[in-house]
Amino acid sequence: MKKALLSFLLSCCAGVTMAQNIPNWENPEVFAVNKEETRATSIPYPDENMALKNDYEASPWYRPLDGMWKFRWVPTVAEIPVGFEQESYDMIGAAFDFSEKHQIPVLLRITTRMAHSRAVSMSWLVASLL
Prior knowledge:
This protein is mainly alpha-helical. The chain has one domain (2-129). 39% of the residues lie in helices and 7% in strands. It has a two-stranded antiparallel sheet with strand order 1-2. Strand 1 and strand 2 form a beta hairpin. The longest helix has 19 residues, at 84-102. It is flat.
């Protein structure tokens, strides 16, 4: 019985020692490394009274993103329509004109993420498919 107990204790100690040597990417206990803690969305307010009311739409820096968004989804790269990038170029020109006329920023996304390591222009993507 003493041998079984001693063996059990030694195996537990060995397991703890081995668990400390697991690389972070293999350790299920590690959720994030070198990352800021998550937090709720915060909206700036010009003064303390407005902040205490917690009405984010009343803040002068609040910008809603609802409205008409134009996008096209295709299940595979091969199904991208030929010449689709011209529509994007036309929209960019119209967005810049609108921005200049009304003196407000316009949100544009003229690249798409193909991999985590780089962003590529959509016109380059179409040219590579042809």
